[in-house]
């Protein structure tokens, strides 16, 4: 590490460098947001464009930008639309086409982002890491998709003057000020302003304040501002590289300015010299002209004086004068020539002198600039070299990066081919190893979706790789494939790796053969198998790299990058120097490239014990996709959030098991001819159907075992313990050929075994080790362990004598990354370890209390983790299995979870397959559907009736299902002994609820029996469902006597109960069925009040069900057209039979005289009436008056009507009530009503409390209330407080 202050000492120069580094840190903080948005924009454009095409797999890499701008059409109609979408999202509709190449749009998302960088010069930048700060900010300013990512508006004009200011523009101004500083200095004030602007941007509340990358950048800015930031080697190199580039550009600018100034001075001096020469020549010409004029004048005078003499002597002197004139002319010409030549020589000498002077200055300036440039270059190179020598060179140039990636890709595919090319179809004999691609059959993988609070299979099969990695809207980032032990999860991942190697090798070889979605080319010596399942190898081309990690080898680690380094990089490279370079390269690859990381066996992995429930990727590795395999219980209990699961799939073994068995038989040397193979395959199919082994063949591991054992003459009969006993026997045979049988086999599955008894001591030691390692609190040692752990169980002999290794039960793996040569050990399969652990428990049942009980207490959810051990134990020792199931159910705490019920069900079936007796497995919560499981679950329930706490039964259809032409059996659940039952949910027309065992079962698949006491004595029934808290019935058929008996039963419960009735069917003699609905509130039962219920129906059979209850409170709401004769009679009889009833509340839509007749003579103290259809008419008024007068014990009366009427006041006249509550919500009282009201209220001599709600408070109302003797009078205005 180095401090920035160690590089430059001058304060303002140091400030300038800090500003540069602050800009670089700010860019790193923006990269995650900008790159993710660019990637999402890229995916959005292409999903939108390709959604209109016939095939969404169309691609185009032939269009170039220039052709698109000339409106040349794309051959597959993609690129023109993409171009339009890019322009549509540009803020100013002026894209920078010089920065981009349309050929790369579909494969590189950053190629589209560069269209929004307004300045040229970015054409060669392939990623955001190659793009400078100005380019990143320019992308965010010009692309409208960022409008929602910031709290401030990104506006046109000068946004820095807006309020709030555009922080992106301010950040760009900071970059300009620092980059274009001529003196390369920054004051303290300016530096503080720069830090403030960058911090404000990175702390923006809309998005960046929650972005971990931006948060990290803010922390670094704070450290830089306080001079506490320590620079890594990479950071220092990148920083000096940026500074060096700026210095070079700055010096080039200075040199250019100096040269330009010198040339300009030279031009000015030259111009002055030329002007002087021109002036000198002009003066010379003027002097010559003046001298000529003087000589001409003298001649003229002489001629005039001598004219006469000349004339006289013309002839005599003409020749002389001509000669004399010629001589003078010649003399003047020679004189002029001499002056002209002198001036030319003089001007030439001055011009040459000025040129030489200018050239000397130009050369001096150039030499000076060159020396300074060379000096600065040497100084910068020296600084970089010193730093590199001190810290080591860790940066990759683009050239070295590409070359290193190519080398690693080649090494990786070579490593995978060596590791996954062959597979042991049965790891006990040498013949069993075959090429994976020769014998592989596609698995049965189904989509899962969340329903009812947990994930269920949808029945839709996964047939393509693209179904796994792609969703309709976006790629999946974290995918889970769950499946039971030995079902082929690891083999599927191995096949995926080999497919990726195939398509990667073909792509790198640039073969001339076309590759489409149905192309699968294998090596010439590999048998070709055509299938339309997972044949889209081109879907794997999206992943530049695939990294396969076996999680059981990385227990205790949670960082995926370190797992890859340990398992793959250390296996490929040998020297520490090569590994160090590969580590750094891997980090760069996972940051830049789209990688697929395969994490195999989540159930065999444990983290560090903190919050890491899953292996994690670094935030900068956001391009990586995770595909994780696990057993179902692990996915359920790992507390994985729904947001962490992009897709969840279920692998249920092999698709076509009989075709796989034929392939396995064909691998044997004695079944090579087609005729022999057909015969053996037919015999094998008959065998598996006879002994019910077909379902076991769906597990590839069990399929191999069953096929191999049958071919060897050993026939299995459906017990898993029997299958694993045979597996152990075959393994023991490899290390010791001695044979002997048990005289009295300790367990049924050991009967007729030949190789277990001679090796019983080895078996006991292995079983002890398997148990204590599996139940170790140090879970990183439970599956992968060292020689030190093995020695504790006397299993640490050297290899030639080591029975465990020689037999193949244990496997050894050399640790490639260890400082000293060492090995780690595992059982060949986790299920083998689980079977041995179950055997040790069966032999030592005290371990359930001594070890397992504490283990379950310390590890929450572990009851599912040991499910396979429990299932094996059911086949070995029933007493121990019964006890362990009780422990598991205890920690399961009675909550319904399908996974735990499936475990108990599998254990029960294993016990039956091993002919166990006294099967009393503990299960307190049940979810039952009428399927293949219900008979076995009913058997388990029968032995748990007194401990059952939760029951959910769903039988949607009355019709009996037909299976093989035979009718399904009627199943009956007797609840008379279910004293701990807390929750009961019944749903479906196939369920009949009866109070005693029914003899008529033709219409119903499931019967629920209460077994109550005599119907006429049900007011005091025997204890039944004494712990019930919740009952829900929907579409269930029952009689009203049964429903009444159920009501009676609930009256005996001490705690509150919620009872929901939804469209249940009442069986009666008068009709085939009557449908009713009811809802019973949570306050159905009180400790001090017998019951209060709401019944939203006018069904007479429900009224009969209420007959004779010891209810104190009852609420009845009738929403029909009023009571008819039958209903009135039923209601009247039911209410009269409620001798303990004190409070009655009735709501009807319309009042009816039958209602008042039903209420006549009740001994209730409180009555509440709600009539929502209108006021009372004359006939009803009379009935109501008689009914209310008959209620001699009535003290409290509450009446609610929509409109008041005079009949109401007449009906209330003379009552002996103490409390009256009136509500006339939809109208005030008029004069006539006020008078009737006054007379009526005055007659209530015992009235103490009066409460009235009206719409308007009138003077007449006030007068009507005047003079009352009531202790309390309350008047409220409707709708006001």
Poorly predicted runs of 5 or more residues: 387-392, 510-530, 817-821, 960-967, 1070-1096, 1120-1125
Give the helix tally: 39
The percentage of residues in β strands lies in 5-15%
- Measured between the Cα atoms of the first and last residue, the distance is 72 Å
Helix content: 40-55%
So what's the overall shape? flat
Structural class: alpha/beta
User: How many β-strands, per DSSP?
Assistant: 33
Mean pLDDT: 78
Main beta-sheet annotation: 10 strands, mixed
> Compute the gyration radius: what is it?
49 Å
Ordered list of secondary-structure elements with their pairings:
Layout: E1 2-3, H1 11-50, H2 65-69, H3 79-88, H4 109-113, H5 133-142, H6 167-179, H7 188-202, H8 212-225, E2 230-231, H9 233-312, H10 314-391, H11 398-420, E3 422-424, E4 433-435, H12 436-439, E5 443-451, E6 454-461, H13 465-469, E7 478-482, H14 489-509, E8 545-550, H15 560-572, H16 576-592, E9 595-600, E10 625-630, H17 632-637, E11 647-654, H18 657-666, H19 674-690, H20 700-711, H21 720-735, H22 760-774, H23 787-791, H24 803-807, E12 810-814, E13 823-827, H25 830-843, H26 847-858, H27 862-865, H28 867-876, H29 878-892, H30 898-913, E14 925-929, H31 934-942, E15 950-954, E16 962-963, E17 966-967, E18 971-974, E19 983-987, E20 991-994, E21 1006-1009, E22 1030-1034, E23 1037-1039, H32 1040-1051, E24 1058-1067, E25 1074-1080, E26 1094-1096, H33 1100-1105, E27 1113-1118, H34 1125-1137, E28 1143-1148, H35 1153-1159, E29 1166-1171, H36 1178-1189, E30 1196-1201, H37 1206-1212, E31 1219-1224, H38 1231-1242, E32 1249-1254, H39 1259-1265, E33 1272-1277
Parallel strand pairs: 7-10, 7-11, 8-9, 9-10, 14-15, 15-19, 18-21, 19-22, 20-21, 20-23, 22-24, 23-24, 26-27, 27-28, 28-29, 29-30, 30-31, 31-32, 32-33
Antiparallel strand pairs: 1-2, 3-4, 5-6, 5-11, 12-13, 16-17, 24-25
